[in-house]
UniProtKB/TrEMBL annotation:
Protein name, per record: AB hydrolase-1 domain-containing protein
AB hydrolase-1 domain residues: 79-182
Presence of keyword Translocase: no
Keywords carried by this UniProt record: Membrane, Transmembrane, Transmembrane helix
Cited Pfam families: Abhydrolase_1 (PF00561)
SUPFAM superfamilies, alphabetized: alpha/beta-Hydrolases
InterPro entries: AB_hydrolase_1, AB_hydrolase_fold
């Protein structure tokens, strides 16, 4: 085969492979973002950590049923509304629940649609509806005052929490290992593809923060192997005052564990300073 012909065939194959890869990225984005089947079943409950709790079921405006736990703390000074990341379920966040209990904060933690024992399948609009349903459960069913609620989001949960913080008036917003947006993350992971054109998801935490009026606490690790440290810094820069940045240690999924006491002390001080 002549060299030019071989080169032409190679170029055609490369273009086809590129288009196929772009197509996979476009049509299967949800599978790249959500991992509800990673530890799908509830592994443990707060009782296994020595904590009393109330199982909760809440309904969303579009008919899904969300499963969660309300974990009361003795002499509680506030309530944490917890938004977990894109993998696993509420039973994989017991370290957080135990920490907040020790610090005397109630915790309401729930699974998004399609996660754990919640019904449905995850989507970006769906997670926002889930967040609104969780907020209404605390403020209407439990009569919790908004200025006693702390929104806490880890990773993807931070984008959901920031979205809610724009629409409601929580006492403060906490972002742990959170990205600026899905297109920003996609551009980092697939720099050779036009991700910003292909993305069907936003989860634009950075944009939300520009409209948040509550105090903001941002925690991120320079060793985060999934979400770049620079994205955590960008979120902090965009946040309103008062705000605080805590530099963690360790990777994306273990930064909290590697800095447990420092994390708890710094977070507790910031919350107590800003609970109105």
């Amino acid at each position: 085969m002549p060299p030019l012909r071989m080169l032409f065939n190679f170029a055609v194959m490369a273009v086809i492979a590129y288009v196929l890869l772009a197509g996979v990225l476009f049509f299967f984005q949800s599978r790249l973002i959500y991992y509800p089947d990673y530890g799908r079943h509830i592994a443990i409950t707060p009782v296994d950590a020595g904590l009393a709790y109330e199982p909760v079921e809440i309904s969303t405006v579009d008919g899904e049923t969300l499963h969660g736990w309300f974990v009361p703390a003795p002499a509680a000074t506030g309530t944490v509304l917890f938004f977990h990341g894109n993998a696993g379920n509420i039973s994989h966040r017991m370290e957080y629940v135990s920490m907040f209990h020790r610090l005397h904060y109630n915790t309401f933690i729930f699974d998004y649609r399609g996660y754990g024992d919640s019904t449905g399948a995850p989507s970006e609009p769906g997670t926002y509806r889930d967040a609104q349903a969780a907020w209404e459960y605390l403020t209407k069913k439990r009569n919790t005052q908004p200025d006693r609620i702390v929104l806490f989001g880890e990773s993807l949960g931070g984008a959901v929490a920031a979205w809610l913080a724009v629409r409601e008036r929580p006492a403060l917003l906490v972002l742990a290992s959170v990205f600026t947006s899905i297109p920003d993350m996609g551009a980092k992971l697939y720099p050779f593809l036009p991700v910003r054109l292909l993305s069907r998801f936003e989860y634009n935490t950075l944009e939300s923060l520009r409209s948040v009026t509550s105090p903001v606490f941002v925690a991120h690790s320079p060793s985060d192997e999934i979400v770049p440290f620079t994205q955590g810094q960008a979120l902090y820069e965009a946040a309103p005052h008062p705000k605080q940045f805590l530099e963690l240690q360790g990777g994306h999924n273990n930064g909290f564990i590697f800095m447990r006491k420092e994390w708890a002390d710094a977070l507790d001080e910031f919350i107590r300073m800003n609970l109105r």
